[in-house]
């Protein structure tokens, strides 16, 4: 830049003076100075673009990538040397900053994922009954309310309330551990007798259980209830049976949970009045088993 803006104009002026083309040296020197000053701005811009602005544009692109979350972006710096100029050192330091941000971001995301998993685990535990592994009453009220307010109820929504017959006798004569074994057995029977991820079993407390059936017709729902009744009678080993009251959601009930629960309660009380080991549906007569082998009343 010094050569182009100072030496070349002055050299040209001297050549013109020596050749006699120009007689007034002061005018020639003034012209050379004016020419040098005129070239100073465009030549400076060209030099800055080549030497400085190219690096600044690269740094600007780098910062834009980092701002958008692309922390793997790096500037081209090559191998580190002892006599690096300041711009190259700046690029190298910015690469290290990006690397540090990337590492910290990954660590933070891992911690957030771990915290989210822990939160979901404890939330799930708060909705589970520890003895049977079924969902509890708290989850039941939330789940059934969501189902009844859903955009589509499919073929039908049914609620079965399940009560363990003669459970108090087992508790009083065999002890609470035996009672816990009976409840755990009933929870396992319910879980294994319904459709996974479609029907959901619950334990409300004590020996009171329930199942929400979705996208199912009445006949298949009765089969599932009778399957629970038969399997539990054969599996618990303490002579306990279950009474089941089955109710179907209807449009006149609306999205309120208590209306459906009351319909199931009425059926459950009728099953208990019949001596237990019955499945009673609001849509059909009570099913009375014969010799422990039965089929639901279709």
**Low-confidence spans: pLDDT under 50, at least 5 residues?**
285-298
CATH C-level class of the largest domain is Alpha Beta
| Proportion of helical residues | 55-70%
Could you give the order of strands across the largest sheet? 1-3-4-2-5-6
Classification by helices and strands: alpha/beta
Helical stretch count?
8
Number of domains: 2
DSSP E strands, number: 6
Q: Please state the CA-atom Rg, rounded to the nearest Å.
A: 43 Å
Euclidean distance between termini CA atoms = 101 Å
Mean pLDDT: 82
Assess the beta-strand content as a share of residues: 5-15%
CATH topology of the largest domain: Alpha-Beta Plaits
CATH architecture of the largest domain: 2-Layer Sandwich
Give me the CATH superfamily of the largest domain: Reverse transcriptase/Diguanylate cyclase domain
Order of helices and strands: HHHEHEHHEEHEHE
The main sheet comes to: 6 strands, mixed
Bulk shape: rod-shaped
């Amino acid at each position: 830049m010094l050569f182009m803006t100072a030496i070349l104009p002055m050299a040209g002026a001297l050549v013109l003076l020596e050749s006699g083309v120009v007689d007034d040296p002061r005018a020639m020197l003034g012209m050379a100075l004016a020419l040098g000053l005129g070239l100073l701005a465009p030549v400076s811009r060209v030099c800055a673009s080549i030497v400085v602005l190219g690096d600044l544009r690269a740094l600007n692109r780098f910062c834009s990538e980092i701002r958008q979350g692309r922390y793997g972006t790096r500037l081209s710096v090559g191998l580190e040397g002892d006599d690096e100029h300041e711009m190259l050192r700046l690029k190298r330091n910015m690469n290290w900053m990006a690397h540090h941000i990337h590492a910290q971001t990954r660590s933070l995301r891992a911690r957030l994922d771990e915290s989210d998993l822990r939160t979901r685990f404890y939330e799930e535990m708060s909705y589970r009954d520890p003895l049977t592994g079924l969902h509890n009453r708290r989850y039941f009220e939330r789940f059934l309310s969501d189902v009844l307010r859903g955009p589509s109820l499919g073929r039908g929504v049914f609620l079965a309330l399940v009560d363990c017959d003669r459970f108090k006798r087992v508790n009083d004569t065999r002890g609470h551990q035996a009672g816990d074994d009976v409840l755990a057995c009933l929870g396992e029977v319910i879980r294994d007798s319904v459709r996974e991820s479609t029907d959901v079993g619950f334990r409300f407390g004590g020996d009171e259980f329930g199942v929400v059936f979705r996208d199912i017709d009445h006949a298949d729902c009765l089969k599932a209830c009778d399957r629970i009744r038969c399997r539990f009678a054969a599996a618990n080993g303490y002579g306990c049976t279950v009474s089941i009251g089955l109710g179907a959601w209807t449009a006149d009930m609306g999205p309120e949970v208590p209306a459906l629960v009351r319909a199931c309660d009425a059926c459950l009380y009728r099953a208990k009045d019949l001596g237990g080991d019955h499945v009673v549906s609001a849509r059909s007569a009570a099913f009375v088993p014969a010799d422990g082998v039965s089929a639901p009343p279709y």
